[in-house]
Amino acid sequence: MKILIIEDEDALRETLAASLAQEHFVIETAADFHTAREKIGVYDYDCILLDIMLPGGNGLALLAELKQSDKAENVIIISAKDSLDDKLKGLELGADDYLTKPFHIAELNARVKAVLRRKKLDGKNRIEVANMLLDIGERLLFINGEQVPLNRKEFDVLNYFLLNRNRLVTKTALAEHVWGDDIDQADNFDFIYYQIKNLRKKLQTADLSIEAVYGIGYKLVEK
Q1: Domain range summary for the chain, segments of one domain joined by +
Q2: Phi, psi of 133 (to 5 degrees)
């Protein structure tokens, strides 16, 4: 899953990025208002960590734009401002949570995971479809009750497909979600083909299959 960190303090931004990367999230960052605005206008994120005081503008203005795009519910405000008015304004604009600096990284990680469970998994920590179970917390796949080993990217690809089951997933959307926004600079998406090829082999006993939609992308459907 992909997270955008909007924070102007270099040390804190780098610490947050490193910590969340260890939790196997794809991390993108923005250090100022205009960079953040550009990113949220072009890309979709599963969770956004948003500072209020930013060079070039106010984070609440970004939150208002996210609300207009129905993307505000996955935002956690991280700010040194601890006034009740700021908290209420952020929550009124649709933010999911508000964390006041300084905070423990472990607490932030827990809140990020809680937001993702509510947003993507209806509060659960696993996805169960047909004879397949994907444990998000432990990053394990079971088919017919037997564990099937996946590498990190195979797990992330399958997770994204399961969250978008029966929907067409374009190669570009899959690449950006699993590998990050900078992937749009790649010359081609051959690396996706090889990941899908390997994943299909591991899903042979599953009641779901990944079908190619020629020239566009893929779709996860029941056999």
Answers
A1: 2-120, 126-222
A2: -130, 125
Distance CA 122, CA 142 (A): 20
CATH homologous superfamily for the domain 2-120? Response regulator (3.40.50.2300)
Q: Which tens digit of pLDDT belongs to each residue from 186-204?
A: 556 678 888 899 999 999 9
Q: Are 63 and 71 in contact (CB under 8 A)?
A: no
Measured between alpha carbons, how far is 114 from 125 in angstroms, rounded to an integer?
9
User: Which CATH architecture is the domain 126-222 placed in?
Assistant: Orthogonal Bundle (1.10)
**Cα 33 from Cα 117, distance rounded (Å):** 28
Per-residue model confidence as pLDDT tens digits over 171-183: 888 887 777 765 6
Q: Where are the beta strands (DSSP E) in 101-190?
A: 126-129, 132-135, 140-143, 146-148, 169-170
Residues 190, 172: Cα–Cα separation, whole Å? 12
Amino acid of residue 107: E
